[in-house]
Amino acid sequence: MTSDHHAMVELAIQWLPFGGPPPEDILVTYGITVDTFYQRILDYRGTTAVPAELSAFARSQLRPRASRRTV
């Protein structure tokens, strides 16, 4: 797992209360679309990219949000 993977999960978690990170921030920071960003979040869930201290509530909110963005 790279530091970029961890940073993506952290960014998604930080912006969770606000509906997710702004698309322009994702594009400028990672050079990918919002859909790709959330697909990667889904791919990383359950891996070491998701901090162990992340609350169950945050996990429960992050998964559906990412799923909705990739459908």
List how many beta strands DSSP finds. Answer: 0
Distance between the termini: 25 Å
Radius of gyration: 11 Å
- SS class: mainly alpha
User: Average pLDDT across residues?
Assistant: 77
Q: How many strands, what sense, and barrel or not for the largest sheet?
A: none
Proportion of residues in β-strands? under 5%
Please count the helical segments.
Answer: 4
**Order of SSEs, N→C?**
HHHH
What overall form do the CA principal axes indicate? Answer: globular
Helix content: 55-70%
Low-confidence stretches: none
Organism: Gordonia rubripertincta NBRC 101908
Protein name: DUF3263 domain-containing protein
Question: What do these coordinates show?
Answer:
With about 70 residues, this protein is mainly α. About 65% of the residues lie in helices and about 0% in strands. It has 4 helices and no strands. The chain has helices at about 5-15, 25-30, 35-45, 55-70. Helix 1 (about 5-15) packs across helix 3 and helix 3 packs across helix 4 (about 55-70). The longest helix has 15 residues, at about 55-70. The chain starts with a helix and ends with a helix. The mean pLDDT is about 75. This is DUF3263 domain-containing protein.
